[in-house]
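Marked as duplicate of an earlier ticket. Keeping the data here for the record.
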Amino acid sequence: MPLDKMSKDYIILKKTVFMEGKGQGIEVKRAIAWVIYNRCRRNSTRWGRSIAQAQFTGQFDCWKSVAKVREMENATSAHRHDFDGLDSWLPSVFDGVDPTVRIGGAEHYYNAEREPPRDYRHRMRIEDFDFYRK
């Protein structure tokens, strides 16, 4: 699924990975990108048929309210260097060539430090986040 860096899908992907992984290391951000990739690959009505649909389905906290979207816009401007740094590796996830973090088909994640544990199989812990499939 190659993505054009100027496309709406890519910009939404980049903002989502940046905000969902805010304050986390590169491995968490890569794993979040893989979750989005896995959801898109399923091409289901539940997840949407494109990355852009993720912002309208309430899948990610950073798109759930006008205040969150404003926070995202401010953060991407204030941390432009970090935000633009995603371009060095993010396209490789959707090209299917990123070998660094494979999360075994995980389609979900949560911050285990902030949320109660969930009892799902195929769980993988990266920093404070658990990645899993139902």
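See parent ticket for discussion. Residues 8-132 form one domain.
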